UniProtKB/TrEMBL annotation, chains A, B:
This is Transcriptional regulator, TetR family. PROSITE patterns: HTH_TETR_1, HTH_TETR_2. It comes from Williamsia maris. Keywords: DNA-binding, Transcription, Transcription regulation. It comes from the Bacteria.
Length: 192, 192
């Protein structure tokens, strides 16, 4: 195997720099204000270096969005479902709390007509859901939950309130809140 | 008691027309693009008629937002908690599904620094939550759920996936999905 060449490394550095600049430009000026020229200038590269990799602003923004949404949230494995779910939800909340992440969430909520964006967003969400589903798979093996439980629905149910608070109501998300959500998911409200 | 004067009625018609025009302008151009002049023109009134009621664009947009978010979602009373929750959630989804409502949700997610907006948004959310809580109060009276259940948390838990799908993932919300959410809220995932 050959080691990465110097030009390959330089290419990756340019790519990362341009994508980071694109995220910052989005934060500062919003989608309409971003241009390939403004991103190139912010990244300190020639505009042709950007056009070589991304033909349109839409492609550049799509990659910046996907590059920023890191699907690798840490997946806990404490041996106990409740603790796993509390940790997982805290990790998700932390990953959404930076100004960059919030700006990206807002961007994701815009009705942008970008070819690859819808498919790419779907792929990232799917990958994240699959990764988190492991926590529920382990709970099935331990007999804590029934195998018939719809794991994606359960995770969506648990995490939608976090998205809603971060993006919409801006109510605080703390340990007590996350604990309350997990308990509701585990036991429901019905009197037994 | 006197009946409303003609000038009072005319004033209300102007107000409603301006607020509706403000919503449309927001939909068409986004927050940055709206001006009091463009709203006045779209509403077919003189710009001074707008300035007389709203001193700033921010005040106008706040009122347009509040005027549009109608907190009066129909509250079902079928005598059965599951059916009540399914109907309530369907009603919420329906109220969020118009292009205007989606645009308003996106606007609500923007980090706008508008004086009265935060307080007004809180007031609307509180009023809506109190109205919907009646469904859970009745279930407590019937013995279907325990009085200790946190009603606001339960409703937030049930409705956050609707907001998230409408605003963020754009996955479909249908009867089966809503039924699945309600069953999760009622019984949780824990094996008994």
């Amino acid at each position: 195997m050959s080691t990465p060449s110097a030009s390959h490394k330089r290419g990756k550095a340019v790519r990362d720099g341009v994508l980071a600049a694109a995220v910052n430009e989005l934060l500062n000026t919003g989608f309409d204000g971003v241009t390939i020229a403004s991103v190139a200038e912010a990244a300190g590269v020639h505009v042709t270096s950007v056009y070589r990799r991304w033909r349109t602003k839409e492609q550049l923004i799509t990659d910046a969005l996907l590059n920023h949404i890191d699907p690798a949230i840490e997946i806990p494995d404490t041996g106990d479902l409740r603790r796993d779910l509390v940790e997982l939800t805290s990790n998700l909340h932390e990953s959404l709390s930076s100004p960059q992440s919030k700006a990206m969430l807002r961007l994701a909520s815009m009705p942008l007509e970008i070819d690859r964006l819808e498919e790419a967003r779907r792929r990232v969400l799917d990958a994240r859901m699959d990764a988190m589903g492991v926590v529920l798979d382990r709970a099935v093996e331990r007999g804590e939950i029934d195998a018939a439980v719809d794991r994606r629905l359960a995770l969506e149910f648990l995490h939608a309130p976090i998205y809603t608070r971060v993006l919409l109501t801006r109510d605080q998300v703390d340990e007590a809140y996350i604990g309350g959500l997990v308990d509701l998911l585990l036991d429901g409200v019905r009197a037994h």
